[in-house]
Q: What sequence folds into this?
């Protein structure tokens, strides 16, 4: 019988570096010379079946790990070089195989660069088409940008994904008990996938939160992350590995129009899955009901941030196990809305979220403090809103801290089940708001920033109103 020969030098080198071994130490353990191991790592000698068996017995290396993960990456590289711009550059696929094997990180970066190039070209094509329509709208529609399409899709539907929730619950039940959650997640990564987690100083990762290195099988986390953000990044990496199929199934159900939108949605749902791992649905719902939805108590109970708790409260829409129908909005200093979502979808038509009177804008003047308001809308609907700032990572000296604010809301009828109900009944807590200045018809509003669309301005030289946009 002819012995099968396998050339897998770069993968053997990756295993050795991941274990922190020199060539001499690994060669001695495998019963070969260092020079022979050097030839193997340079793909000048084959990795025989006997050596494969020694690797698996001495270092507990999974054979799948030695087979590598380059198949998918190779197909993506082939797609890149099938572009007419690059079609004549390579005589065959052998060079792509070598690049994938020897430098998977560089190959992945090349794929990302090509995707960015294609997406930018598509956007410019769309823009050129719009500008070329004589007499038609010349500004990009919100749904033409993939990020906006994903955001609007998540706003309109309930922010609950049953498939991810079930998979996350099953995963957490299978984790061994007796150690802290972060330690258990790190142990799972190491034992199942051979991935170790390491924090790097900000100077080493100035522009990244997280990076996975395929060569050394290490997950690098930025030192600027808070403990809460650090464990979420670990959980998100695990979600992509362990719950990847469930995430893909939910992304497919969103029926997005482009590959870029689907990739953005996959990232968003990976963060959703990370929250599902950190705060399992059943345990979190029970704790939320017992604490009467006290955000600070829940953050302490699950050792997560207030922002993470608020995001989790907005997805309690499981069939037969529902919490209060919270909705959530996040804005930056300039008032730009970063995300909107809710257990029943975000109430855009009734609540809007663009009124400058909302507590989410006042929160920046009182960082770290919870502001509770009873918001009354012109149509008679009333809401309980809970607003607070969140810090996005740690800033070094000389850097300006990035701070956003979140608003968690629910109908006033449901507010009695929360710990915040008494504060909402105080006279000072009542806010007469509108869906937005353009649609609001409240007269004499000190906060009005734009004239209404449906009423003429009161241009009377003899009378000056409280606002520059007073109307008749």
A:
């Amino acid at each position: 019988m002819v012995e099968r020969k396998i050339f897998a030098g770069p993968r053997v080198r990756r295993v050795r570096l991941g274990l922190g071994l020199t060539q001499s130490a690994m060669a001695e353990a495998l019963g070969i010379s260092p020079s022979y191991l050097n030839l193997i790592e340079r793909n000048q000698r084959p990795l025989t079946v006997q050596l494969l068996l020694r690797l698996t017995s001495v270092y507990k290396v999974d054979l799948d790990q030695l087979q590598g993960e380059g198949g998918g990456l190779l197909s993506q590289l082939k797609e890149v070089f099938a572009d007419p711009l690059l079609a004549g550059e390579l005589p065959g696929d052998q060079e792509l195989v070598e690049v994938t094997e020897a430098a998977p990180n560089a190959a992945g970066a090349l794929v990302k660069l090509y995707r960015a190039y294609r997406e930018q070209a598509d956007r410019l094509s769309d823009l050129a088409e719009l500008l070329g329509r004589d007499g038609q709208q010349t500004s990009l529609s919100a749904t033409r940008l993939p990020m906006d399409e994903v955001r609007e899709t998540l706003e309109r539907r309930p922010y609950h994904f049953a498939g991810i929730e079930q998979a996350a619950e099953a995963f957490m039940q299978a984790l061994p008990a007796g150690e802290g959650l972060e330690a258990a997640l790190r142990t799972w990564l190491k034992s199942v996938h051979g991935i170790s987690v390491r924090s790097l100083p900000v100077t080493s990762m100035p522009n990244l939160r997280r990076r996975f290195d395929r060569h050394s099988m290490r997950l690098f986390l930025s030192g600027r992350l808070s403990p809460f953000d650090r464990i979420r990044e670990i959980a998100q990496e695990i979600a992509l590995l362990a719950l990847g199929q469930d995430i893909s199934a939910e992304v497919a159900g969103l029926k997005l129009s482009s590959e870029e939108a689907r990739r953005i949605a996959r990232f968003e749902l990976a963060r959703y899955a990370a929250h599902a791992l950190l705060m399992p649905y059943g345990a979190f719902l029970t704790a939320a009901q017992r604490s009467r939805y006290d955000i600070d108590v829940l953050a302490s109970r699950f050792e997560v941030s207030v922002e993470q708790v608020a995001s989790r409260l907005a997805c309690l829409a499981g069939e037969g196990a529902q919490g209060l129908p919270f909705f959530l909005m996040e804005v930056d200093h300039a008032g730009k809305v970063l995300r909107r979502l809710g257990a029943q979808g975000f109430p855009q038509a009734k609540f809007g979220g663009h009124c400058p009177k909302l507590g989410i804008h006042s929160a920046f003047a009182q960082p770290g403090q919870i502001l509770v308001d009873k918001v009354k809308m012109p149509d008679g609907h009333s809401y309980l809103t809970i607003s607070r700032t969140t810090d996005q990572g740690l800033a070094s000296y000389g850097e300006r801290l990035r701070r956003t604010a979140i608003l968690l809301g629910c109908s006033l009828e449901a507010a009695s089940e929360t710990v915040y109900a008494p504060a909402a009944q105080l006279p000072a807590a009542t806010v007469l708001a509108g869906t937005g200045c353009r649609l609001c018809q409240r007269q004499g509003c000190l906060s009005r920033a734009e004239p209404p669309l449906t009423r003429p301005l009161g241009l009377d030289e003899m009378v000056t109103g409280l606002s520059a946009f007073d109307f008749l």
Observations:
- The first helix runs from residue 9 to 19.
- The CA atoms of residues 14 and 449 lie 59 Å apart.
- Residues 327-432 form a domain with the Beta-Lactamase fold (CATH 3.30.450).
- The longest strand covers residues 382-391.
